[in-house]
Design goal:
3 domains, 4-stranded antiparallel sheet, globular, about 15% strand, Jelly Rolls, alpha+beta, 12 helices
């Protein structure tokens, strides 16, 4: 296997972990994938990344966090010595605490060494341990790397208060495990029932067995965004999967993803992805624009 390749589009969905480094070209086109990605920025004066239409100018030792299904590109950066970690969405969803962490930090895309020196140093140590294990070709390397990935996420979570300004939260939720599990039950239900008749915040609060106001406060703290925007993001995840894997019309994709109309689908898609669904399919999937 050639580990020098940066993007591994054939990343086996049965695998939970992958790592790469050593790619010589300094840029990579805008794209997305169903797995998440962590980049330890390499050396050099210029390291420019873009995630969801936002540009980040970084320095060696910074981290880039790309969560599953997010649009991203490398504008100009050292990719030969940068370290890239890829992890499956299924693995992150397999454990309650990993789900919680991924929800909470979904809006965090960079960890700057100059702002979070201690945290960045700890995460770098973990990343290089992963590298040593992954490239050793030992039979249990994936298991050991996944254990380190969990350590990486737990270390990140230990610095929630320090990261609070970037998360736009106060870093103190005060919610017990029972409440958190109720919230995860609700979010799992939504992901599996996007075409349900009633996914309103009030209905989901009732499902969780708590008041609408309390549900709203917990939801914002856990996910980093309000309920309406989160629901649209989950619908977009479903829509992008359908755009990638089928030749269904845009109208059908919108309905299967839970959008009430084509105009609302187009509006939300353009706001979050920076382009219309048809443009997205043509540019990144290689299919024809659907007529609607």
């Amino acid at each position: 296997m050639d580990y020098s390749r940066y993007e591994t589009y054939e990343f086996d969905s049965a695998s939970a972990f992958n790592m790469s480094t050593g790619f010589k070209e300094r840029s990579y086109k805008m794209h997305w994938h169903s797995y998440g990605e962590i980049v330890l920025v390499g050396p050099g004066k210029t390291n420019v990344y873009m995630i969801n239409q936002k540009t980040y100018e970084l320095v060696p030792g910074d981290f880039v966090l790309v969560w599953p299904m997010e649009m991203h590109s490398i504008i100009d950066a050292d990719r030969e010595e940068a370290l890239v970690i890829q992890f499956s969405n299924a693995f992150m969803n397999s454990l309650f605490d990993l789900q919680r962490i991924m929800h909470l930090y979904r809006n965090l895309h960079v960890i700057c060494i100059n702002a979070h020196r201690e945290l960045a140093a700890k995460l770098s140590t973990i990343a290089y341990k992963m590298k040593d294990i992954f490239f050793s070709e030992t039979s249990d390397r994936e298991l050991r790397c996944c254990m380190l990935l969990m350590e990486f996420m737990m270390t990140l979570d230990e610095y929630r208060v320090e990261l609070a300004p970037e998360l736009k939260s106060d870093g103190r939720d005060g919610f017990n495990e029972d409440i958190m599990r109720r919230m995860m039950k609700v979010t799992d239900y939504i992901k599996n029932n996007l075409t349900a008749d009633d996914l309103s915040q009030g209905a989901m609060a009732e499902m969780a067995g708590i008041s609408k106001d309390y549900f709203s406060r917990i939801f914002k703290n856990v996910t980093g965004m309000n309920y309406s925007r989160w629901l649209n993001m989950i619908r977009l995840e479903k829509a992008t999967e359908l755009l990638a894997s089928s030749d269904r019309s845009l109208t059908e994709i919108a309905m299967l993803s839970g959008f009430s109309s084509i105009p609302s689908f187009n509006r939300v898609f353009r706001t979050e992805k920076g382009m219309a669904p048809g443009e997205y399919r043509t540019l990144f999937i290689g299919g024809k624009k659907d007529e609607h």
